[in-house]
Design a protein that fits this description.
This protein has 14 helices and 14 strands. By secondary structure, it is α/β, with parallel strands linked by helices.
């Protein structure tokens, strides 16, 4: 049997969710997200983020959330700013461009965007009306490189976006992991305060499927439901999503699951660091990117599954290891034992 560190969505769902789905299976409810579970889950989210005026919509996955949010907010001649490592730029089959919106990439070492990164784009798109208009800044927390935004960074970015009339949209596929990282000083309340729109990712953190889109800016709330319906994302059996987020938001289960995944990753990171392994980026979330020899990669591949992320040179490559809400001590201990044995 191999242990998998390939992704954080190969698991099923947390037992609380499965139990609730079974318990409430024969309960008749209204459709299209008007069921009692969805309504209760939305209220719990609003309470947790301390933003009663926010509007919340459930959709099935991250690419769907990104496509609906961006295509709904932008006019045909407006475009998106993203880090070059952003999910919408590399891993969504051109979904954003397919809706007619250009994605402008910014090269960054850590996967994050700062106001200084955006200024050149604004300056280079001032030939009105001949160029596309930058209108939305897309960020992820945690990023595709496992890095996170601190409170001050998000405050500065939010203020800059407001000053330049740009929407700030946070992809929260791994938001739980970003907020519960041991070095994070950012809170979910701050995220709601500083972004126009974000989402809580459930798919990668204990749910079967599902993301909760949270719209904080009243100016972009109107008619959003039409966009979800038009894009085929309004589930008739919306209870499937509502039940899951209701369970995830109870007693902060959502954040506890993410914290566990982070802690498991840090055990592996610390073991490798003690053996002199270098990392592609300094992460504190459930994604780590150790740089190891190709020979070592072959050895680890015998017992573990993971992605080779980036070739460094002829002898070394960076691999990506991802832990999940359900990553066991057995899997982590087995990995660490092999590292200690092979690098002793």
């Amino acid at each position: 049997m191999k242990f998998s560190f390939k992704n954080d969505y190969s698991e099923g769902c947390h037992p609380n969710i499965l139990q609730s789905l079974l318990l409430n299976n024969t309960d008749q409810q209204a459709g299209y997200g008007e069921d009692q579970y969805s309504l209760q889950a939305k209220e719990l989210i609003k309470e947790r983020i301390k933003s009663p005026a926010s509007e919340i919509y459930f959709v099935s996955g991250g690419t769907q959330a990104n496509l609906i949010v961006i295509s709904s907010l932008l006019k045909p001649y407006q475009c998106v700013i993203s880090a070059s490592t952003g999910h919408i730029l590399n891993n969504e089959a051109g979904a954003i461009e397919a809706t007619g919106h250009k994605v402008l990439g910014i090269e960054t070492e850590d996967g994050k965007i700062s106001p200084a990164d955006i200024i050149p784009i604004l300056e280079n798109h001032s030939n009105v009306p001949h160029q596309v208009m930058p209108k939305l800044v897309y960020i992820s927390n945690s990023t595709e490189l496992g890095t996170i935004y601190q409170a001050k960074e998000l405050e500065e970015l939010s203020a800059f976006c407001k000053e330049h009339k740009l929407y700030l949209f946070m992809d929260g596929a791994r938001l739980g992991h970003g907020l519960t990282a041991e070095i994070s000083d950012l809170t979910i309340e701050k995220v709601a305060e500083l972004t126009d729109i974000f989402y809580l990712g459930g798919t990668k953190n204990g749910a079967l499927i599902g993301e909760a889109i949270v719209i904080n800016n009243p100016a972009i709330q109107e008619d959003f439901g039409f966009n979800i319906k038009q894009k085929g994302a309004l589930l008739a059996k919306g209870r499937l999503l509502g039940i899951q987020f209701l369970e995830l938001m109870k007693n902060d289960l959502y954040f506890d699951l993410a914290k566990h995944a982070n802690q498991q990753a840090m055990k592996m990171k610390n073991t490798m660091a003690e053996r002199g392994v270098q990392f592609l980026s300094d992460t504190y979330t459930n994604q780590i990117f150790p740089v190891i020899s190709n020979e070592m990669i072959e050895i680890l591949s015998e017992k573990f599954e993971f992605y080779v992320w980036k070739k460094i040179d002829e002898k070394y490559s960076a691999i990506r290891l991802i832990t999940s809400w359900n990553t066991s001590d057995e899997a982590v201990d087995s990995f660490n034992e092999m590292i200690n044995s092979e690098l002793s």
